[in-house]
Amino acid sequence: MRRDTMTPLERLAAYGAGAPVDRLPCVPIVGNTAARVIGVKVGEFRGNGELIAKAQVSAYRLFGYDIIRIFTDLYTQAEAMGAKVSYPEDETAFLAAPAISDMAELDRLAPADPNRDGYLPQHLEAMRRAVDAVGNEVAVTGAVTCPFTNASFLVGADRLARLMMRSPESVHRLCEISLQTNLAYAGAIIDAGCTPSLTDAMSSMSVISPRQFREFSLPYLKRLIDYIHGRGKGVTLHICGKTSGIWKDMVEAGADCLSIDNDADLSEARTAVGDRVRLMGNVHPSEVMLQGTPEAVRRATLSCITQAKDNPKGFIVASGCSLPTETPFANIHAMLDTVRAFAP
Q1: How many domains are contained in the chain?
Q2: Where in this chain does the record put each Uroporphyrinogen decarboxylase (URO-D) domain (predicted)?
Q3: Which helix (H) or strand (E) segment is 221 a member of?
Q4: pTM of the model
Q5: Alpha-carbon torsion, ordered 96, 102, 104, 107, to 10 deg
Q6: Exposed/middle/buried for residue 58 (C-beta within 10 Å: 0-12, 13-18, 19+)
Q7: Secondary structure letter of residue 31 according to DSSP
Q8: 195 falls within a domain
Q9: Which residue of 82, 89, 270, 297 has the fewest C-beta atoms within 10 A of its own C-beta?
Q10: Is residue 52 situated within a structural domain?
Q11: Is residue 264 part of a domain?
């Protein structure tokens, strides 16, 4: 098997400049699988920036992928704004209760201070520690849950769906408050030496219509991306599920790279927007990476490469979404080994 001859920072810089690279960039999106790398339970990450950093840096060193993403769950910002989050001993956290149970309480919601509220300070600590440890060789990103998705955690997804029909002005107020938290957190992430990585699960066509996306999500998403660009950072945007009907809107929002979920087709994305934006994806995180064999991973990885390697704006081999916690190490190695064996 060929060995890497460039660091991830060198590889991504050369790739972006159109210069020769030793292999295509590759990012199996390792989230809480990192806990398994250092032999701890997922629940131990709660409020422990030092442990999160140790796990993510150790995972990077074990597998050799191209971007570290500091991430434990989608709810860190909503929790800092008052949502209740449950932390099982050894499973990913989940939303236990939204921040408010009645829209009459909307006025008491306020943007979070990332240096003070919830567990945001510990996540920032994890980012700083990761940068100190390996920032000279690999990019470190911090996950940001985008305005519309975060708004759904403030009032609950079902209530937000009803509000879009009955009280759209309330949805805009929720998204504005969420955006202010996003802007503050994104700024703190950049101050920590990292790049914000945007995830917007509830903006998916699997959840809302393209029209609703354009009305309630896109304006706030664009303002967030404009801010990050203004701070000199590029933006990778991930929206889960089906997204073909909003790819052009995601590009219009300013994203530099679209992370394509396994529910979407890389070939279609390349044809639709590949001349305007880099693509990233999209090996199935559950059916292939978690449940498949290394050979299945190899085949799926090669399929993604075949579909998107010639994308005009470039392509990053990746899982379609964050890997499940119990993803076998052999399968993560298989993805990287397959990319290393493929001549760029």
Answers
A1: 1
A2: 8-341
A3: helix 218-230
A4: 0.96
A5: 20
A6: middle
A7: S
A8: yes
A9: 89
A10: yes
A11: no
